[in-house]
Amino acid sequence: MAAAAAAGAASAELVIGWCIFGLLLLAILAFCWIYVRKYQSQRESEVVSTITAIFSLAIALITSALLPVDIFLVSYMKNQNGTFKDWANANVSRQIEDTVLYGYYAFYSVILFCVFFWIPFVYFYYEEKDEDDTGKCTQVKMALKYTLGFVVICALLLLVGAFVPLNLPDNKNSTQWEKVKFLFEELGSSHGLAALSFSISSLTLLGMLAAIIYTAYGMSALPLNLIKGTRSAAYERLENTEDIEEVEQHIQTIKSKSKDGRPLPARDRRALKQLEERLRTLRKRERHLEFIENSWWTKFCGALRPLKIIWGIFFIFVALLFVISLFLSNLDKALHSAGIDSGFIIFGANLSNPLNMLLPLLQTVFPLDYILITIIIMYFIFTSMAGIRNIGIWFFWIRLYKIRRGRTRPQALLFLCMILLLIVLHTSYMIYSLAPQYVMYGSQNYFIESNMTFNGHRGNSTLSVPKRCDADAPEDQCTVTRTYLFLHKFWFFSAAYYFGNWAFLGVFVVGFIVSCCKGKKSVIERVDEDDSDLSDEEPSVYSV
User: Fold this and answer.
1) What is the mean pLDDT of residues 512-523?
2) Is residue 231 a contact partner of residue 405, using CB atoms and an 8 Å limit?
């Protein structure tokens, strides 16, 4: 009866886990569709770019969900007392590990395909479409030509990762042919893991840079924007009306100089042209402010103002939890790791951080720890989106695109999805930095022998007691997550991630100070002279 009850409880946990994952997939697909449709330009929307953006964004979010699934599966194979479950023999454990590994292969291969082929191809296709008198065949040929460069880079990364030896041959006097043979044997034994890991780690470096720029700033900007809110539409409209009157007066003053028939000087003509452009922008802004002031959405957002403040305060606490944990984890690596040659890797926690202490406590109640990990990952991604919206997409000092509700060009959406794909790759390492032992082993325990004592005297009897899995555990007693294998295949990438974490903390502090000093945002997104994709007849209802 007890065994049957235990088996039933275990099956219930597995069913609950897969149900949560299934619901998460449906939620991800719905969110991606709503998000892309919300931000894409209604005047320039294209079917292929829309589908590509939704698919890429969904792949990014689903890949981020692999980490809690990986941790859940390795933890599910063992009981809390440290013994393997009855069904979890060597073959079954190996099958589960292979299934997770193949899942990573599949999703990471799709990410490589999107980053190095499909997204660049669709981007260049629509860039060529902007040219006049360009046929479909010419667009495809030119897009393929430009995309070929990305494909070559991907092939080079795979080749370097495949043939860079992680282990040197034992015989130093071996011939060149024996060395080449050794490389191919090592490639076959790793089943291509090294090649894929090197390519993904290279992209993760780019994701680290994107996280430093966008995510670190988004973590400070998102909660503070929710707390501060936006300016009053009525007050902004009053200011805008005063600006219109002032510009009209300047225009009348300049035009009065030519009443007697004399032509205006070149300087006055340039000033007049600038003032007329300014007047058109202000009148366009006036129409949008009038629409938003009278819209039901403005009144609805006003009613939700207290809730936004609560969410903003909650997000600040989450950001502080994340940043403090990351700081203590990096400090632990600086003090107790073997140095840069080992990639600053540590297998335990000498300095406890809040998140590393919270996860073991939540492990006692299934599935609270997996829910917390999922929330942290989603928070990391949502703050990245907020950072991209606030900063825009830049190439060094040149702004390429803005991300605006209902007015984002197809190329900008493709850039957004590519950046999010790269940031998602870096998310797994960020979570590992916060809780290394949990990411490696989950909630697994193993047995250690302990001598029994009687009345203060140590006896000869031994007792097996469960202990949390760590780096000292026997390989046959604890199963390492596949995430860890992908993260630490090459030490030099781990060293780069370590320094990237310090840069992330620095940008967060600077972004927090800047966000505190900035005033309230406008009730509408900025209307400039270059906003050619803005429709005068259809202002954005969801601008608040």
Assistant:
1) 81
2) no
Q: How far apart are CA 143 and CA 138, in angstroms?
A: 8
- Residue 318: closest CA among 218, 457, 192, 436: 218
- Which pair of structure tokens corresponds to residue 485? 């294998």
447 contact partners, CB below 8 Å, separation of at least 6? 82, 83, 464, 465, 466, 467, 477
Residue pLDDT, tens place only, 440-452: 877 777 777 666 5
CA dist 298 → 126, 232, 245, 283, 481 (Å) = 35, 10, 26, 20, 48
Structure tokens at 537: 């007849």
Domain ranges of the chain: 20-170+181-234+294-450+466-528
Cα 422 to Cα 119: distance, rounded to the nearest angstrom? 13
Q: Given the structure tokens 């039933």, which residue do they identify?
A: 8
Amino acid at 107: F
Is-contact 451 458, C-beta < 8 A? yes
Please indicate whether residue 20 or residue 391 has the higher confidence score (pLDDT).
Answer: 391
Buried/exposed code over 268-286 (b: 16+ C-beta within 10 A; e: otherwise): eeeebeebeebbebbebbb
Q: Radius of gyration (Cα) for the chain, nearest Å? A: 29
User: Angle at CA 332, nearest 5°, toward 67 and 368?
Assistant: 35
Cα atoms in the 13 Å half-sphere on the side-chain side of 518: 20
State which H helix or E strand residue 365 sits in: none
pTM for the model stands at 0.76
Phi-psi region of 343 (alpha: psi -120 to 50; beta: other; left: phi over 0): left
Side chain identity at residue 444, one-letter code: Q
Sign of the Cα pseudo-torsion (433, 435, 437, 440, in order): negative
96, 402 Cβ separation under 8 angstroms: no
Q: What is the pLDDT of residues 119-134, one digit of tens each?
A: 888 888 887 765 655 6
Over the stretch 141-167, which tens digit does the pLDDT of each residue have? 888 888 888 888 888 877 776 666 555
Q: Could you give the CA distance from residue 317 to residue 126 in angstroms, rounded to a whole number?
A: 42
Of 209, 425, 217, 421, residue with least CA distance to 319: 217
Q: How far apart are CA 359 and CA 372, in angstroms?
A: 8
Give the dihedral of Cα atoms 68, 69, 71, 73; nearest 10 deg.
160
Please give the Cα distance from 330 to 142 (Å, whole number). Answer: 46
What contacts 471, CB < 8 A, 6 or more positions away? 347, 348
CA atoms of 509 and 212, how far apart (whole Å): 11
Confidence at 177, pLDDT banded by 50, 70, 90 = very low
Q: 78 in helix, strand or coil?
A: strand
Lowest model confidence (mean pLDDT) among 49-58, 84-93, 302-311, 484-493: 84-93
Q: What is the DSSP letter of 211?
A: I
